[in-house]
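Researcher: Good morning. I'm working through a list of sequences from a screen, and I'd like to move beyond sequence-only analysis. For each chain I'm collecting a predicted structure so we can compare shapes side by side. This is the next one on the list. No need for commentary yet; just the structure.
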Amino acid sequence: MQPSITSTQSFRANPYAIYAGLREHSPVTLSTRADGSAVYLVSRAAEIFDCLRDARLKKNIYNTRTPTLFQRLFLRPIVGSNMLKADPPDHTRLRRLASDAFAPRTIAAWEPHIEQIAHRLIDAVAATGTIDLIRDYALPLPLTVITDMLGIPATDHHRFHTWSSNLINAGVISSGVTVLNRDIIQLSMYMRGHIRRRQKVLGTDLLSQLIQAHLGEDRLSPTELVSTAILLLIAGHETTVNLIGNGLATLLQLPDQCDHLIAHPEAIPAAVEELLRLCSPVQLVNRYAAEPLVIADVAIPRGAHIQLLIGSANHDGALFADPDSYQLNQAESKHLAFSHGIHFCLGAPLARLEGAVALRVLLERLPTLRLSDPVAPLEWRPSIELRGLTRLPAQFTVPVR
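Model: Good morning. Structure tokens for this chain:
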């Protein structure tokens, strides 16, 4: 068994060098997680694509290991109500009930509101000449969008980000085991109260759509509503923070590419796709083996925990001509930033729209933007599943009025 590679500072700073070694020498590696448990790391794009389509690999850990009576009666149903960790038929039903709220036509209607938020955030710093692109822009933009979509008061934004960050850093989101800690309990209690209030006065927001969603007589249960709302809250801003932040960190080190996007804003959607590939906000996804199987000549036992390194697949030379460099239009439709198969990210249209609006408005309003210290090492958050920066100081020339 190889030692854990995911707890080191060098890994957080540049996981892609380590991924390259794995792809070449050990595309399926038995390693250890931070808690000491065994995990198989799959690093090559070909095997990852296969695994994402393999029905023998499950999201719900309790569908692959013999659960205790407590797990069978209490935890298995809770996990089954979480779209992120559910398997068919639970996953199929939950996704169908929620899909209309994330249809591209529905998401596109939010573009003017997202633009207003972006302009308001830049207005707040425009006279200062400095900006922390994470604190002042990449974080509040998607957080405001998703909380507005869920009808959550702006005064509670900070609480939600604190809960969300704590859960991700504690591994609650990536863990296959249901963990009940203070943050998830507080967040669940808050969301239950918010849902009850919204049920009495329905609006046009996303939460109201989920409350009213139905397939015939079938609707989301109270537990499923809470689980879905929490998932949307966390996934709806944490990954997009990383997309915007990581993407800006890359582009600001490529001034010619920034100039190209300023001159050709129609190229920004393609730039977002390439940044999704190159800077993968989500680095890995979890699966569990429901039966023994073989991946790249490595025998995987039933119940084994498998991590599919989609960040590695997005840098695989078998798929991309220049995998470690930013090349506009290189990503096309082959990247795995939103996963693949039945668990392809439901929120992909929203993330793409937010990323494109964030880049377009920022480059339009602050064309002289540059990193405050281009040679300073970047500070990365501790999570190994979601890769993102803690801060990104930048400066710009204040426009003369």
